[in-house]
Specification:
It is a single chain. 43% of the residues lie in helices and 18% in strands. The protein is an alpha/beta fold. Strand 6 (225-227) and strand 7 form a beta hairpin.
């Protein structure tokens, strides 16, 4: 298991830096699509959707759906300038976007217009959402910057928040980080994968009758909620507690769902249950492969922390950093 160490103290007044050391470059660039010609059917379809094609929102959704990297976007921009094309036409001419991608995004736009997403509201406990000038918010941004330095350049930045026991601040940190990433204007999804003692719906005053549990049990699209004041942030609550949470999170269906999110969002933050009590977080880490460890000063037992790291070995996940909470 590869490890990158980023240790910080997190308290009500801020994060204080203790140690910062990078051990290796983890990521390689994905293969790029070959140049292809835009077929006549695609051209016809683009012309039939003039109101949507011209919207920045549709272009952004299509870029997320197709998993376009920064280098891909530069290539699209170059073709736009050279040939005077719109974003979608240029992306399709390069073979970076398919007709299937366009159909799916257009269907999603229409479905959202007919059935708008529920809107969650960040509680006053989430300082980053309400007071960006607070020292705490500034230090969360500093942690965000360090995590961005470790994010893959051409893939989604997936972070599973894990800790040994209860009451160590996993859910709060997951929420604050998701808010901070969304404040960059980059599509971010916060997922409550704690199907046993979920709390994110309370932190966001969100509906949780239908969430991740129901999507996994019933094999349907999850009910993702928007967040008031944070246009780039989406929230997926845990939903009603299932009878077999570990089995649901271990199933390949969850892995497929995660792969879909990686195409749509730049950042994915997943909250999980305590590792010392359940194996759920290990199942999530196996799918996601990137974890951030959280512990609490004068609360987390060293034996539990060591046991958690030992158990994480079996997931082959990369530990991208650690945070020490103090509250």
């Amino acid at each position: 298991m590869r490890t990158i160490c980023v240790r910080r103290f997190l308290s009500s007044c801020g994060l204080r830096h203790e140690l910062f050391a990078e051990t290796e470059d983890l990521f390689s660039q994905r293969e790029k699509s070959n140049l292809t010609q835009l077929n006549a059917d695609s051209e016809s379809r683009v012309r039939r959707e003039p109101d949507l094609v011209g919207s920045q929102r549709l272009s952004q959704a299509l870029a997320r759906r197709s998993g376009l990297s920064e280098s891909d976007l530069h290539r699209v921009s170059a073709v736009q300038e050279q040939l005077g094309l719109g974003f979608i036409e240029a992306a399709m001419r390069l073979g970076l976007v398919t007709q299937s991608d366009l159909d799916e995004v257009l269907a999603g736009e229409r479905a959202e217009a007919e059935h708008p997403k529920a809107v969650a509201r960040p509680s006053s406990h989430l300082i980053s959402a309400h007071d960006p000038f607070d020292p705490f918010s500034e230090n969360v941004r500093a942690l965000r910057t360090e995590l961005l330095m470790r994010a893959p350049a051409d893939d989604a930045n997936v972070i599973v928040i894990v800790s040994p026991g209860r009451g160590e601040g996993r859910s709060r940190l997951a929420s604050e980080l998701a808010i901070s990433f969304a404040q960059l204007g980059q599509a971010t999804l916060l997922v409550d994968a704690d199907l046993r003692r979920s709390t994110l719906h309370d932190l966001f005053s969100a509906d949780h009758d239908e969430g991740l549990s129901q999507a996994l049990m019933e094999g349907r699209a999850p009910k993702v909620q928007g967040v008031l004041g944070l246009a780039s942030l989406s929230l997926l609550t845990a939903g009603r507690r299932p009878s077999t949470p570990l089995e649901l999170l271990s199933d390949p269906t969850f892995g497929e769902m995660l792969s879909g999110w990686k195409r749509r969002y730049r950042h994915l933050i997943l909250d999980t249950p305590a590792v010392s009590l359940y194996s759920d977080a290990l199942a999530v880490a196996t799918h996601a492969q990137r974890v951030l460890i959280v512990s609490r000063l004068n609360h987390t037992m060293i034996a539990q922390a060591r046991d958690m790291i030992r158990r994480l070995e079996s997931t082959r996940a990369t530990i991208i950093g650690s945070v020490l909470n103090r509250f």
